[in-house]
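User: Hey, quick favor. My workstation is busy. Could you predict this chain's structure for me?
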Amino acid sequence: MDRSITPESVLSSVVRITEQRSQQHLEDSLVSTLADLAGLAFCGICRPTHATTGIYIDYVAVTAHDGFAPPEQMTEIGTDTLLLECLATGGTRAVPQPDGSMRRALAIVDDRGTVCAFLVTLSPAGRTEQLGLIGGFAAIYRNYLAILRDAARDTLTGLKNRKTFDENFSRIVANSRHLEVPFTDDRRHRHLAGEHHWLGIIDIDHFKRVNDTFGHVFGDEVLLLMAALMRKAFRGEDLLFRFGGEEFVVLLAPTVFTNAAAVFKRFRATVAAFAFPQVGKVTVSIGFVRIQSDDLPSVAIGSADKALYYAKEHGRDQVGSYEQLLDDGKLTPEEDHAVGDMELF
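Assistant: No problem, here it is.
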């Protein structure tokens, strides 16, 4: 921690950080390097997660010295006025501690103007804060996140692409643990109480006919307009993906079942009412499912897919809830929902 700071050491550290190719490795490397260079007692990156019960903070990367233990679980931001102020202003705040140390938080703002993370540091008492160094590393983190986001986007629609889905899903599953509520019945069957993350699959009905009839140029325009309608219909904290072709996936931020069902039904109606240039009327079918804290991506996708296929097979232009279809006896958990020779798309 007493290592002297030289231009060479800073440059070497930046090179080491920018060698990372995943966000998690980038964050781990950044906090450990900054803590070493700036002599910090604590350096961490945390992300805010919004729920109706409050805003929760999840530390995703931490380096701690001198007995400062990192938080082990998500905590409600209401107990942390420093982060609350940073979230409100999108800037930097610092608070002296009783022992003379200085706790500082820097908001990391994404390209939509949303605070997506905080860089939190604690400089020991009697040590000069390396403000330039801390601010510089925060800027590196912000810029590198933008590069990673660009690489994670679908080139046509600008939505997140499929290769980033597993990483985002794993983070959501981890964040879902504090939302779990007690249950007395089967977890999939008849249990929709409380707030949860939700996964929805949106599929454009008869999209092959659009390409065959009007050509791929107008087909691409339908996909672009569909992505634009999704951005308007869903919240900023909801994650939107294009899985390829005419299939899109939405990961809803925590909400109750009735709200999740309402937002998917509202989006279906919005698409049906929209006049697509040259093509005219286009409809979508949607299947959605609750995400549980022990789900694998394949499990959630498979369940939502069954609800989607049910909607396709029963008239299209409708929304199906996996849990509700189970409750109504229209699907069974073990059902291998064969599509057969029916044209679904």
